[in-house]
Design goal:
Elements lengths: L1 H23 L7 E5 L6 H17 L3 E5 L6 H9 L6 E3 L4 H8 L7 H4 L24 H10 L14 H13 L10
Parallel strand pairs: 1-2, 1-3
């Protein structure tokens, strides 16, 4: 009997190299949706669309980008967290994904448990720009102006909790720039 069990286990193990590729070939068996939790034209959206063109060609199934912006990316991320775990709904997100649990404590999903990482798609820098009419030539010029006028200068981001918002706040804090909500100490 013991020998029979060993033979059956050995036969199953020998069949794995043949069976696993057959299982892997069944995905995707329908279109794949990539949810981008930001607006069309955002940096994350542009990267997702570049990747989907290659994925569609290589997978033989349509790969569709769907934008679900709002709440620093948590609306789209929540949709993916609730989707069937069959690999047909994916999330292309930004670095905001890592800080959202601290910003939005009442999220209905756990970013680590419900949205495991698959791969890094790109790294994108943020760039500080200003109107030439301001006369600032360097970041130091901007910092001097912002310190001289606490709470008067503003900046644009992709939204509360977004990567651009977090990077702007890191810049503001490291430069010692006060705002109306955050007076300099």
């Amino acid at each position: 009997m013991h020998r029979l069990i060993i033979l059956v286990v050995a036969a199953l193990l020998a069949a794995l190299p043949v069976a696993l590729p057959a299982v892997a070939q069944t995905w995707p068996d329908k279109p794949v949706h990539i949810i981008v939790p930001f607006t069309p034209g955002s940096a994350t959206d542009v990267v997702a669309r570049a990747v989907t063109a290659v994925m569609t060609r290589n997978l033989g199934q349509p790969v569709i980008v769907e934008n679900r912006p709002g709440a620093g990316g948590t609306i789209g991320a929540g949709q993916v967290a609730k989707a069937a775990p069959d690999g047909h709904t994916l999330l292309a997100n930004s670095s905001a994904h890592t800080v959202n649990p601290a910003i939005f404590p009442s999220m209905t999903f756990n970013t680590v448990r419900d949205l495991p990482a698959v791969t890094l798609l790109a790294q994108q820098p943020n760039i500080l720009v200003a109107s030439p009419s301001k006369g600032w030539q360097t970041a130091a010029d901007y910092v001097r102006a912002a310190r001289a006028q606490p709470g008067k200068l503003t900046y644009a981001t992709a939204g509360t909790g977004s990567g651009t918002h977090m990077n702007a706040e890191k810049f503001r804090l490291s430069a010692g720039i006060a705002t109306a909500a955050h007076p300099r100490r």
